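Raw record, unedited: DNA-binding protein
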Amino acid sequence: MFKTVAETAKDISMPEDQVLRYIYAGRIKAVHDGEQFLINSAQFDTYHEQLERIKEEIEIWRNTPIPEDPDIKDED
């Protein structure tokens, strides 16, 4: 499925001008139909999968309690 620059920017939470810079730099693959750039949205599937995995890992990290340090001595 091909999307416009505006649709792609909204999907990946990025400003439109940054998406255009990435297209010109070759970081995002796009075709120009004479009027606008069209971007195959399938190239972002891996991006979205990695983003979701990272969010899950951060949430696990936040919810993991800090283990007690065995070197701390109770000085009561």
